[in-house]
Write a structure and sequence with these properties.
By secondary structure, this protein is an alpha/beta fold. The mean pLDDT is 96. Bound molecules: adenosine monophosphate (AMP), fe (iii) ion (2 copies) and zinc ion (ZN). The site of zinc ion has 5 residues, from loops.
Length: 291
């Protein structure tokens, strides 16, 4: 990161602390993602690509040149039984050995899994691994969204949404699970890397995580929940609001922008100044980059 990390002079809010670039399953390069956040009036933007920090340098430079603060982040894949749990990881040390071992293993498994899914789908549809590669930026974390884009390019489905509700659904015969650590291990790895772990979209369609798991994550250093996210629903959200108040946790709100890959718009949910300041005060693995 060429810009130095100094004490921010202006207000940090509104913040959008969950944005994806083409270093994972977003459709735009990191600089374009920062520009999109800026156009929507965001003052602090985090890049949170799945299982990688490779977009940070470009995003930080772009954010700072636009007069925004950049919060380094990642969205770490985890799994509890059959359901995927996403751990937002702010201000981690990108070179931490423990966390790197986890993300290397997840990314390796994502590759094998995408190849296997391509083989399975290829039995019924015209689709090859090369089609998927063509949709994936060099070095990016590969995922089902890239398979979806390949299916769109081949004319098998209209958009990512249609692919996810059919061919790519976990109920489909083509589906293969990826390796992901259990959420307590994931939270501990983020905390161990000096980061601030926050559970992404914690009240989505699958509903609340079991109480015991939440307590385990809190013991492992969980700092907060992403309460502002379009996929969260009541009554799970109400339960989480009470939990956040009871344990004085950090509540964030974000868009989960994926470029053209999802309808989510930067700034559709935002994080207030106080919550950003708490994250900045807690994180020790890397620093907020201020303009
Ligand atoms: P994966 O981690 O490879 O199993 O893929 C999950 C990713 O796909 C998540 O990070 C979401 O961003 C994305 N995703 C899930 N459902 C949809 C959908 N209906 N439309 C577009 N993207 C989706
Ligand atoms: Fe995603
Ligand atoms: Fe997610
Ligand atoms: Zn996300």
């Amino acid at each position: 990161m060429s810009a130095g990390s100094v004490a921010p002079s202006g207000p940090l809010a509104p913040g959008d602390l969950h944005l994806h670039s083409d270093h994972s399953d977003g459709t735009e390069p990191p600089a374009a993602v920062m520009a999109a956040a800026h156009r929507h009036g965001i003052r602090t933007a985090a890049l949170t690509d799945h299982d990688t920090t490779s977009g940070w340098a470009e995003a930080a430079d772009a954010a700072v040149s636009l007069g925004m603060s950049f919060l380094p982040g990642m969205e770490l894949s985890a799994r509890h039984e059959w359901r995927s749990v996403h751990v937002l990881a702010y201000l981690i040390d990108p070179d931490d050995a423990g966390l790197r071992a986890l993300t290397d293993r997840i990314r390796e498994s994502r590759l094998t899994r995408a190849r296997t899914m391509a083989d399975r789908i290829g039995r019924d549809y015209a689709l090859t691994w090369e089609d998927i590669e063509a949709q994936t930026a060099e070095g990016a974390t590969v995922g089902r969204p890239h398979i979806a884009d390949a299916l769109v390019a081949r004319g098998h489905v209209r958009d990512r949404g249609e692919a996810f509700s059919g061919i790519l659904s976990p109920r489909s015969d083509y589906y293969v699970a990826l390796y992901a650590p259990d959420p307590v291990t994931a939270v501990a790895a983020v905390a161990g890397a000096g980061g601030v772990p926050v559970i992404a979209h914690p009240a989505g369609r699958a509903g609340l995580l079991p109480d015991r798991l939440v307590r385990g994550m809190l013991d492992a250093g969980l700092a907060g929940f992403e309460l502002g996210h379009r996929e969260n629903t009541e009554p799970a959200l109400g339960t989480l609001r009470r939990l956040v108040a009871e344990h004085d946790l950090i509540a964030t709100g974000s868009s989960d922008y994926h470029g053209r890959g999802k309808p989510n718009v930067p700034g559709e949910n935002t994080t207030p100044e106080a919550a950003i300041a708490r994250i900045v005060a807690l994180g020790t693995g890397s620093s907020l980059v201020a303009p």
